[in-house]
């Protein structure tokens, strides 16, 4: 494991003071790689927070060119990048923000063709895609590799985060045995709601990697910003799950 | 008896509310409640919650007093004062 440099200690000084985190937690983060599936309204702030915390490497998969109507929520993007590949804005913004972390951008969304390879290089993955098909692919690959997956989602004024540890807590396919037939690609969104879900997810990921606090495996953390209500819902593995039931 | 029914996601939008109180007979089971709600809120609501056979969709999460009901929950007896949360899946990013 690479030790912390003096510059690391200077940058992360205030979080090194967090009880239970310290230099040991910082070193674990520095030596960790996170895969983020899409860096839009949710994945963007998630990447920002992981970069701020000093994750060693981010692998970010996101296809397509930046549209002007992405800018209400996709905070890694910059208005000058409209009609240019999103990964250009992602790379530039993160490099300017924290040049000490490694960022690998992949100008593709997760697919059957690339998911196994992308997950192979990660210690943890974050699901932030707007389509269940991509989320299920990531879930299956994470279960297969046995790495934690932090699934983050939002809709309208609400959101939730589901930390998944294969073999220990329910996977995404345990919860949703079928592709939800009514989910639509377009959804109502205010960026602050996405960012809230993202930062809960980032914190769950940091805890999962470093052992800080209690990662909420087996729970869905749900919030509704309309009423500012938060709850933790107990969720269960599905003994008939086609993805993870075979894991004891 | 009376139960509190809560909604999230698309279901909350279609129901037009996030919470309601419902009176049911003393021996009511979850299926009775769902049938009542589908009739009350109409076909768009029903389409989100149940499939063509009238069974609760596998992707609709039923949460009873903060804990997911697993398997076929349709015959689970309701309890006075219980909170039933119906969650439709979300994947917004």
Present the secondary structure layout.
The complex is a heterodimer of chains A (248) and B (93).
Chain A: H1 6-11, H2 13-16, H3 22-30, E1 33-37, H4 43-53, E2 57-61, H5 86-97, E3 102-106, H6 115-120, E4 124-127, H7 132-145, E5 149-155, E6 158-164, H8 172-175, H9 191-210, E7 219-224, E8 229-234
Parallel strand pairs in A: 1-2, 1-4, 2-3, 4-5
Antiparallel strand pairs in A: 5-6, 6-7, 7-8
Helix pairs in contact in A: 4-9
Chain B: E1 2-7, H1 9-15, E2 19-23, H2 30-41, H3 43-49, E3 61-64, E4 67-68, E5 83-87
Parallel strand pairs in B: 1-5
Antiparallel strand pairs in B: 1-2, 3-4, 3-5
Helix pairs in contact in B: 1-3, 2-3
Instruction: Based on Cα principal axes, name the global outline of chain B.
Output: globular
Distance between the termini of chain A: 30 Å
Q: Give the strand order, joined by hyphens, for the main sheet of chain A.
A: 3-2-1-4-5-6-7-8
Please mark out the parts of chain B with pLDDT under 50 across 5 or more consecutive residues, or reply none: none
Question: In CATH terms, what is the fold-level topology of chain A?
Answer: Rossmann fold
* Share in helix of chain A: 25-40%
**DSSP helix count of chain B?**
3
Q: Report the biggest beta sheet of chain A as strand number plus sense, adding barrel if it closes.
A: 8 strands, mixed
- Any idea how many domains of chain B? 1
The strand order across the widest sheet of chain B is: 2-1-5-3-4
- The beta-strand count of chain B equals 5
Determine the CATH superfamily of chain B: Beta-grasp domain
CATH class of chain A: Alpha Beta
Specify the CATH class of chain B: Alpha Beta
How do the SSEs of chain B run, as a string of H and E? Answer: EHEHHEEE
Q: Stretches of chain A where pLDDT falls below 50 for ≥5 residues?
A: none
* Tally of structural domains of chain A: 1
């Amino acid at each position: 494991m690479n030790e912390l440099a003096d510059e690391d200690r200077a940058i992360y000084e205030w979080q090194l003071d967090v009880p239970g985190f310290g230099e040991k937690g910082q070193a674990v983060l520095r030596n960790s790689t996170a895969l983020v599936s899409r860096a839009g309204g949710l994945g963007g702030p998630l990447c920002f927070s992981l970069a701020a915390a000093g994750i060693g490497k981010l692998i970010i998969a996101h296809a397509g060119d930046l549209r002007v109507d992405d800018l209400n929520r996709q905070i890694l993007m910059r208005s000058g990048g409209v009609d240019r590949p999103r990964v250009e804005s992602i790379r530039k913004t993160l490099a300017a923000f924290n040049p000490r972390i490694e960022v690998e951008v992949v100008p593709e969304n997760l697919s059957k063709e690339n998911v196994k390879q992308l997950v192979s290089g990660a210690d943890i993955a974050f699901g932030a895609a707007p389509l269940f098909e991509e989320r299920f692919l990531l879930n299956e690959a994470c279960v297969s590799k046995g790495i934690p997956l932090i699934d983050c989602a939002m809709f309208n004024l609400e959101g939730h985060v589901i930390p998944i540890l294969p073999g220990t807590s329910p996977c995404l396919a345990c919860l949703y045995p079928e592709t939800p037939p009514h989910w639509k690609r377009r959804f109502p969104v205010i960026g602050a709601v996405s960012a809230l879900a993202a930062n809960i997810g980032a914190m769950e990921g940091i805890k999962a990697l470093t052992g800080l606090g209690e990662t909420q495996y087996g729970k869905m953390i749900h919030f509704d910003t309309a009423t500012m209500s938060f709850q933790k819902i107990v969720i269960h593995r599905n003994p008939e799950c086609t993805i993870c039931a075979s894991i004891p | 008896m009376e139960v509190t029914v809560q909604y999230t996601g698309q279901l909350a939008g279609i129901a037009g509310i996030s919470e309601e109180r419902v009176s049911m007979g003393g021996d009511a089971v979850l299926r009775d409640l769902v049938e009542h709600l589908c009739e009350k809120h109409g076909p768009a609501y029903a389409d989100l919650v149940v499939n063509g056979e009238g069974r609760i969709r596998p992707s609709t999460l039923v949460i009873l007093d903060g804990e997911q009901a697993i398997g076929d929950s349709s015959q689970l007896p309701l309890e006075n004062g219980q909170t039933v949360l119906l969650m439709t899946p979300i994947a917004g990013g």
